[in-house]
Amino acid sequence: MKTFELKGKVREELGKRASKATRAEESVPCVLYGTGENVHFTATASDLRKLIYSPEVFIVDLDIDGKKSKAIMKDLQFHPVSDKVLHIDFLEVSDKKPVVLEVPVKLNGLAEGVKAGGKLALQMRKLKVKGIYTDFPEAITIDVTNLGLGKTIQVGAVKIDKLEILNAKNAVVAQVKLTRAARGAAAAAASGK
To answer: Does the keyword Flavoprotein apply (predicted)?
Structure first.
């Protein structure tokens, strides 16, 4: 899993007025939860951009006034109108306690259903996974070469070593949908026999 380095400064003042002043300075109020005491800090909005606007999942190497820790981004709040980042919650991780993360899904291969005229659709872009952070892959790769026309891959069929998938077992991850052309060809073949 990729890492992202982030420097922060401890916040002395807390509350609505202090948070508003922090945002006016192009910084984002953040909180680090986890093993010890909660740490309130700020990070510059420009430093956070690559962490927030990315489909990838990162382990964040936090450096808050010289105190280093590893964390994941747990929650993110945006302004409803301007879409500016208002607040970020980080969760400190350790190699002893499992965490829950959403890991991106990648499809690999050319599905048989696509060769027959269908269209491959990724229904779930991320899966919720629980485990030790060092065991997490950058993405969950699913082979779709044997996926036929009108067939699906459900969460229950996806297996990852040392990790537990928390999504519903019958939820559809990917499927090959019948297109109009494929339906027409199937109907013509059925009536021609």
So the answer is: no
Using CA atoms, how far residue 109 sits from 117, 124, 164, in Å, is 15, 17, 24
Contact between 67 and 82 (Cβ < 8 Å): no
Per-residue model confidence as pLDDT tens digits over 45-100: 888 888 888 777 788 888 888 888 888 888 888 888 887 888 888 888 888 888 88
The H or E element that residue 76 is part of is strand 67-78
pLDDT per residue as tens digits for the range 25-45? 888 888 888 767 788 888 888
Q: Where do the domains of the chain lie?
A: 2-93, 100-186
Question: Domain 100-186, CATH 2.40.50.140 — does that match?
Answer: no
Residue in the block written with tokens 């969760």: 91
Burial 136-155 (b: 16+ CB within 10 A, else e): beebbebebeebebeebbbb
For residue 1, count CB atoms less than 10 angstroms from its CB and return exposed for 0-12, middle for 13-18, buried for 19 or more. Answer: middle
CATH class of 2-93: mainly beta
Instruction: Kindly report the backbone phi and psi dihedral angles of residue 7, in degrees, each rounded to the nearest multiple of 5, phi listed first.
Output: -105, 140
Whole-angstrom distance, CA of residue 92 vs CA of residue 35: 7
Give the number of other CB atoms < 10 A from CB of residue 68. 9
